[in-house]
Amino acid sequence: MSKSSCYWLNRLLVLLLGAFGVIAFSPLDFWPAAFISLSALLILIQKQSPKQAAVIGFWWGVGLFGCGLHWIYLCIEQFGGLPFIASWALIALLISYLSLYPALFTAALRWLLPESSLASLCLAAPAVWQITDWLRGTLLTGFPWLQFGYTQIDAPLAGLAPLGGVQLLTYGIVAGSGFMVWIGMKHRWSALVILPLALLSLQPLRKISWTQEQPQHARHVALVQGNIAQALKWQPQNLTATLNHYWQLTQPLLPNTSLIVWPEMAIPDTDSSQMTFLHWLSQQLTAENQLITGISHHHPQGGYYNSLLVLSHTPPLSEQTPLAYYHKHHLVPFGEFVPLASLLRPLAPLFNLPMSSFSQGDYRQKPLKVGKWRLNPAICYEIILGEQLRANFTEEIDCLLTTSNDAWFGDSWGPWQHVQMARMRALELGRPLLRATNTGITVVTNAYGQIMAQLTPRISGVLQASVTPAKGITPYARWGNRPIWLLTTVSLLATWLLKRSQR
């Protein structure tokens, strides 16, 4: 076999090992794959130079993100209006960019600690991974999708989430993977017993009730899943049919349901244009009903917001009537705003998608007040940003609320990965979660992130459930990512001291 053939076979192997890690995420949910994939990466970079390790990390990232985010192509291909080659070029650019972060991880780890040791694998590796994961979730508006900690929502490490969030879970996975690699390298097979003992020792954490349910304040909730096709949703001639459809699903709920939730942009128009309909809808509600809907808010001073609006049985609405809104803060590039818009918009329909000129809401906003409940809201992509949700969280919050329109991604893995991340927010903050979506996955979880009720995706229907709010506060809700950054700092410091003592 030629040298060139061996080179590309090695790259293919690395790519496949990265792709194997995707099996750990929903909808496949084989969580051990996260440990296997990361262990393979750590093995492959042993005895490699930083440059060689970077190449390995890059191709491993291509496998992970190429397989795990392939569904984004559905959006670009169906709604972007770009030629086939241009669509794939954009996907390749995104995957290549995200793969730079595993490459940075492997290069930095080999540069810091050229010699493999228990310290480099179990202390330095998770600390460096935490830094590169943070960079991926922050730079260029951030894209923290496929963080390995999410794979533990139903796995043994789940008890760590209320302590340090998804980042602490990721730290544990990388540290555990490093320990397995060290055992294999040093042939310390007897040390394997430590792994199951460590997992068993974490089980009591899952039994701790950081928050307390409040059954006396339980409410009957209905989440409406309209299942409006994305190709039809934004056509003006379909607006009336869409409003009628949501009303037909909602009307039977009014006698016995205290809270009704429509998904993101269920009303595909502005509130100022639909004031007559909103007035009529509020009058159909009773004193016991409240309805939350996604809509575009037109600010009187200019600008449009992707918003949630709370409707109650109120006096006649008008432009001057104060309404309860939540405005989306973290906007998706090209979907909700277009960087360099004057340059890019003329190039292709991709840069002129419906509602792609939103203004940004405040980072901190008041909770939505629904009767005696206080809801901590997030719209679509925002639910994967744990620190943003925590920044708006107080002990008075009764429940988490997220709405979405995942119809952009069809019947792919994207919505399943999205709901997996939403469940993690419930576990981190110790609150039940309501998730209303246009096409699915519409779910209700308890304060431990466990799904209590779920609607079949890709159907038109209503998910009804009795939801019990919770009080109290988890360590993560109180301290956020400060513990994981302290752990990262201590790990790097300990690694440096051990390296210095060996010298």
Structural write-up:
The protein is α/β, with parallel strands linked by helices and 503 residues long. Helices cover 45% and strands 15% of the residues. The protein has 16 helices and 15 strands. Strands 2, 3, 4, 5, 6, 7 and 14 form a 7-stranded mixed beta sheet that branches. A 6-stranded mixed beta sheet has the order 8-9-10-11-12-13, covered by helices on one side. A two-stranded antiparallel sheet has the order 1-15. Strand 5 and strand 6 form a beta hairpin.
Count of strand segments: 15
Largest sheet: 7 strands, mixed
- As a percent range, the share of strand residues is 15-25%
The separation of the N and C termini measures 42 Å
Helix percent reads 40-55%
